[in-house]
Amino acid sequence: MSANLHDYDGDIIAWANEQARLLREGLFSQLDIEHIAEEIEDVGKSEKRELRNRMAVLLAHLLKWQCQTGYQGNSWRRTIKEQRRGVLACLKETPSLKPDLGKPDWWAWVWSDAVGLAVKETGLDCYPESCPWTFEQIMDAEFWP
After folding, report:
1. Does residue 73 lie within any of the structural domains?
2. 38-50 pLDDT, tens digit each
3. Which of 20, 22, 49, 123 could cross-link with 27 by S-S, CB 3.0 to 4.6 Å?
4. What is the rounded CA–CA span in Å between residue 60 and residue 67?
5. Among the listed residues 132, 94, 93, the one whose alpha carbon sits nearest the alpha carbon of residue 114
């Protein structure tokens, strides 16, 4: 039987608290190393997912702003500003995400998500195949397509 009192698959919070206690007490031989490694990797995946989601929402709202000029309003403006701040915060807090911004596959994935959101919210399917704006334009507080 494992020295761990809590099962990783049974109660993740209890398991995590137990692992933290074991680390603090220096009881390294009792640690669930494989699952700890998985959780550390998942933290990175979560940060990547947040950046991708924020950028997709930002792009979707920029698309809506551009294509539905009659609906431009404070709500969309707030969302665009909020997502710009969120993207910048993600990059400031986790600078190792910056290289993703140079990857065409990452942009294709984000753009696909953004177009999907825009289509779902507007019912329109008239958006470009790829992002027509640079990162600098997207993040520019003065840029309103």
Report:
1. yes
2. 999 888 899 999 9
3. 22
4. 10
5. 132
Tell me, yes or no, whether 15 lies in a domain: no
What is the tens place of the pLDDT at every residue in 95-136? 999 999 999 999 999 999 999 999 999 999 889 999 999 999
Axis-axis angle for helices 12-24, 33-67 (nearest 10): 120
Residue with tokens 């640079």: 134
Burial of 35 by CB count in 10 Å (0-12 exposed, 13-18 middle, 19+ buried)?
middle
Residue 71, domain extent:
46-139
Residue 12 lies in a domain: no
Tally of structural domains, the chain: 1
| pTM of this prediction exceeds 0.85 | no
Residues 132, 72: Cα–Cα separation, whole Å: 20
Residues 84, 90, 93, 95, Cα dihedral to 10°: -100
Whether the per-residue pLDDT at 140 is higher than 60: the answer is yes
What token pair was written down for 65? 């702003």
